[in-house]
Design a protein that fits this description.
The structure is a homotrimer. Chain A has one domain. Chain A is built from nine helices and no strands. In chain A, helix 2 packs antiparallel against helix 7. Chain A is globular, with a radius of gyration of 17 Å. The N and C termini of chain A lie far apart (about 50 Å). The interface between A and B is medium-sized, with 34 and 34 residues. Chains A, B, C: Keywords: Cell membrane, Membrane, Transmembrane, Transmembrane helix.
Chain lengths: ~200, ~200, ~200
Amino acid sequence: MLLALYLIAITAEAMTAALAAGRRDMDWVGVCIIACVTALGGGSVRDVLLGHYPLTWVLHPEYLWITAAAALLTAIAAPVMRRLHRLFLFLDALGLVVFTVIGCQVALQMQLPITVVLVSGMITGCAGGVLRDVLCNDIPLLLRKELYASVSVVTGGLFIGSQYLGANLNASMIGAMLFGLVFRLLALRFNWQMPKFVYRDEWR
Amino acid sequence: MLLALYLIAITAEAMTAALAAGRRDMDWVGVCIIACVTALGGGSVRDVLLGHYPLTWVLHPEYLWITAAAALLTAIAAPVMRRLHRLFLFLDALGLVVFTVIGCQVALQMQLPITVVLVSGMITGCAGGVLRDVLCNDIPLLLRKELYASVSVVTGGLFIGSQYLGANLNASMIGAMLFGLVFRLLALRFNWQMPKFVYRDEWR
Amino acid sequence: MLLALYLIAITAEAMTAALAAGRRDMDWVGVCIIACVTALGGGSVRDVLLGHYPLTWVLHPEYLWITAAAALLTAIAAPVMRRLHRLFLFLDALGLVVFTVIGCQVALQMQLPITVVLVSGMITGCAGGVLRDVLCNDIPLLLRKELYASVSVVTGGLFIGSQYLGANLNASMIGAMLFGLVFRLLALRFNWQMPKFVYRDEWR
């Protein structure tokens, strides 16, 4: 089941990436590259930082093809995407919580400290989107809006907490993902935001 | 011979990087740093992602000096560079195909799957330029123009294909590099472009 | 003593990062993320490039909490910060030289070549700030102004030089850090700058 969710998640991330690339007038190869970086970048950054080799896409190169294919289909079907707005946001939220739980799980299996497990989930969930925004020369969205990172922290915290309390692995995964998904969708629906820190000065 | 080509390639990349840094008014240390990141960054990203330690410049720190020296010479000789426009584009194209073949070769020696070999070539050929553009706060050029990434894919594919067909290592290297070089120069000459994916929307 | 200096350094870097994040209207989670990336990113990039696992914050996850707490306190106390301008620049300079010496020391212990030791110090001292600027979508400051990278090179060179001449470890550390600190403060005070390489062209 986790594999099915993972495949949905990388597909959804590839689709968001393709639309972001289209906003920047990238060519078809650029669209595929951005899609692969977005969908597989979070896991790659995590694995490199934790020294967890080989990376997912080195073991399973078919994920690269899935991602590239999803991006090209999105580019072709972009006008229809507009009408699938809600489905699209739903898949993106699903991707976030699935990646977060997978990231936590990898760090748990490496028996790392609990803070690192939480950070591993955040990196897996969020770093792909950050890389996408850096390559598209935007200020990373997650640092500014929409509780994206917060949803990842809460999902990861819930998963780790229930694991430490001895809950069944599948139960804690599904519970954490469901809660995170609902939290994210509510945040989008009611436009919840974290307070911002606004600072202006002259010296630098 | 591959070493000679590699040295020409890092020199050429250092020169492109120095000119990019000059457009952004960087100081001399910044010029050297951008040059090292551009010339050695592609190989470093590849080695980190594949877990292929130690990195090239850790084994051969003299490459750092060569790169920095080439960048400083370029900064000094910038007015003359303008007239060497064609030589410069030629060296840059040579760098792309040499890096691509070297990247494929590294992954082949690690006996990685064929898709990963192709990606390894692309990363080695292109990631340095992407890092340069990110540090200079541009949208990476390769994602938008000039078949840069496509040339890398074609060169890598040709090299891998002829290797699988049992061709001699040197012959497949030279063949793939020559073909890629000609392809790139023709693309520049006739301004070939991949179709672009242009997408505009309001929601995000 | 080095540990105490290291803790001061990551705190100072977290503070600079929080102010940079505030200039870009990031939310509280974004401020913490930027602070962790800035304070611990230099060391992480070094460790990943040198294959020096596990990373500092994986071994000592408490550093993540210290950094995040320093960033939040800075965000709360931002109006007061303005008056602490000089203290702040002093701490930032201290962070630079401490990180540089620690980075050199890590590479020395891995018995890497002398050029790599110098580069390791520079990466540790400067990469965190570069990551901060890339995530905030600025052109990295260090590449343009204020002798930041140069101070790191000089500090590292002095430390390595005195080590090779057989000086006591603590003495060379303190000497190099003191010299680098004074150099940096003088550079700030008298607005020393490296010559810039300014280049304009039409073709690209």
